[in-house]
Design goal:
The chain is mainly alpha-helical. Helix content is 53%, strand content 5%.
Length: 74
């Protein structure tokens, strides 16, 4: 059974838009946000969308049945 990491295009596009907004909001001369609350919100949502872009695919079929995953180890 292989664990495959999938790529989702919608969170990737949203992460790109948020990266552009973060770039506009951040002042590189003073290393601060113009509006700190909005900058932190952009950063948190950007991190969320980057993580959700590369999440593992669910395994289906015989390998992913509940009986195999729920076995107790003695």
């Amino acid at each position: 059974m292989k664990n495959k990491i999938g790529f989702n295009i919608m969170p990737a596009l949203l992460a790109f838009v948020l990266a552009m907004a973060l770039n506009r909001e951040f002042n590189f001369e003073t290393f601060t946000f113009q509006k700190p609350a909005l900058g932190i919100l952009y950063l948190v949502t950007f991190i969320f969308f980057v993580i959700s872009t590369f999440k593992k695919k669910k395994v289906t079929g015989k390998e992913g049945t509940a009986g195999e995953t729920m076995k107790k180890e003695d």
